[in-house]
Amino acid sequence: MIPNNLFLSIQTSAAIVSLLGAILVVCIVLFIIGTSSVDEEKHQAKGKVYKLRVKYFYGLMAAIVLLLFFTMQTLPYFKHKTTRSDEVVTVVGAQWAWKMDHGTTEVKAKEFEGLNDITLPSNKVIQFNVMSADVNHNFAIYNDKGDIVAQTQAMPNYTNHLQYTFEERGEYHILCLEYCGMAHAYMTGSIHIE
Amino acid sequence: MTSILNPTELKQQRRLLVIWCITFLIIFPFLISLGLMMRMNQGGLADLPPNTFYSYMTMHGLGMAGILFSITLGAANYLISSRYVKLKIGFQYFVYFLILIGFLTLIFATIIGGFAAGWYVLYPLPFIGASWPAWSTALTTVSLIVLGVAWLLGSMHVLLALAKRYGGFSRLMGWNYIVGKTPDEPLPPMAMIATVALVPAVLSFLSAAVFLVMFLFQYFEPSLAFDPLFMKNMIFFFGHVIVNITMYLAVGWVYTLLPEYSKRDWGVDRIFAISWNGSFIFIIFAYLHHLYMDFAQPSGLQFAGQIASYLSAVPVTVVTMFGVIGQLYHSKVKWTMVPFVFLLGTMGWAIGGFAALVDSTIYVNKVLHNTLWVPAHFHTYMLAGVVLYIFGFLYYFSTPEAERKTENYSKLGIWIYLIGVYGFLLMFYLGGMNSVPRRYDKYVGITVGDVQSTGMLLARIAAYFVMAILAGLLVMYVSLITRIAKKFNE
Hints:
The complex is a heterodimer of chains A (194) and B (490).
Chain A: H1 10-35, H2 42-71, H3 79-82, E1 87-94, E2 97-102, E3 117-120, E4 125-132, E5 137-142, E6 148-154, E7 160-165, E8 170-176, E9 188-193
Parallel strand pairs in A: 1-4, 3-9
Antiparallel strand pairs in A: 1-2, 4-7, 5-6, 5-8, 8-9
Chain B: H1 7-42, H2 50-83, H3 89-112, H4 134-166, H5 169-172, H6 175-178, H7 189-220, H8 228-262, H9 270-286, H10 299-311, H11 313-328, H12 337-359, H13 362-368, H14 373-398, H15 412-433, H16 451-487
Helix pairs in contact in B: 1-2, 1-3, 1-16, 2-3, 2-4, 2-8, 2-14, 3-4, 4-7, 7-8, 7-9, 8-9, 8-11, 8-14, 9-10, 9-11, 11-12, 12-14, 14-15, 14-16, 15-16
């Protein structure tokens, strides 16, 4: 099981890895340009590159297998089936507001009544049952520092189950991350963790 | 390179390509200007009404994907028809005018009509809560159908001509190379790559046709309702494939033209054939990574999305990128505009592709999905990859044959462009890293952490870099447009 954050947030780690990748690519390009004036018989030069290519191929395949193995240990899709939730919250996205309430609901998404803020306990497994009353939305939870910690789409006709455990008390914020019309950028909500 | 066409036929093909190039050179900066307005609005340097912002966003996205694919198809048509198999010039003009009509109506529907559902017209948004008139939804749908039909016909035309010339689909896919039977007449890389790109393209246009016709049904009968997850799959299949194969078609001419500068062979062999057959499969399945946050999607498809996305890096890097290195390493190549820009385009593709791979990891996507990281990677792929390949082609086409290995045009324009592009992209990546959402007309509604101030600051800086992109293009245009226009009467 990979935790959400090792030393840095996933976002920062992704940025560092991408930056290192970009630096490596630029270095290769500079090397090619810098050494291109060397005169070498074409088959010999290509031979050297293709020899390196074989090693690269095996290295890449090994990296892909390892990365697939480790990153697929923690997927957001099955948690609600494998882990018991301490609390269930119904969430409905509607142009342009979030409606939330404790517990499950029997009413249709369009008729669901709820508020755009909710209070939930810390260190408890919370399951959000996320739906939409109209178009596609995206229920994204931000911590107080402004980092996304979890998200799922809110789709008409479907319920997406998102499980998350809030480890820190305080304010969390909800933004819509799927373009849903004119007031998309103002479709917000809050979660108070106590 | 000798042409298979007689001088008259070659002149006809050249003229059509000149028309394509000029069309691209006009539409491209226009669409960048829409992007500039969007970043200025997000940065507080402009104040567009929300509907105007989102209609610009819609036109910018649809227009860019459309014009880049169209010019790439036009350039591939020219190379294929002048070197490998004759294509019907009248039919090519028909496709060109259909595309032009599609573009003009799309501009009318979005910029004038205000249609603003985004490039992906994500069902059912065009029909629910729309702030634009219903006729602009209908006109956008019709213009996309016109474009789709034009691209479908243009792609089928190339595929059928190639299949007739090289003995069918299996030959074009290089299956005889895979089983160890090298044909007497070697298959040109462009022919195989065009097949690998255009067959999925045809499938994607058919997918688009289905969902667009469903849109029309709903337009005329509003009580209808289709499954949103099914529609989303169709839309992203179309959108992902068209962007993906635009790069591959452009790579086709890199394979064709770079050896003229490096003086090294670069042909189809067994590894090449296996690799591009792999790409064929990965093109079709990689789109699934767009739906990672749709938890209702069958989980097998989510796994397939990550696996296909990861594996797509294998043929691309092992064969194409190592191939470029093999062409240029210790080659004594003279760094004239064409090989220089092709190498830079490959660099941009690698950088953008790597950032895409990072985001195609479900574990990472759960916090980067629909942040500015997403436009960051595909703008890298496009602006620092595909567009540079296109400019490489334009410089090749507009340079007289005798001067191709000696010319050394001022690279000032391309350097200004590159500074603009990488500065602009960096702001997107930093935005993604800081959880700034994409597709927001303004950030003022965000009250969490520093997301609002970070988003606005990055957008302002990005806007200045976009101006540098436009300035770089202007410098390039000064000489390029005259040179391309001269080809019309050659």
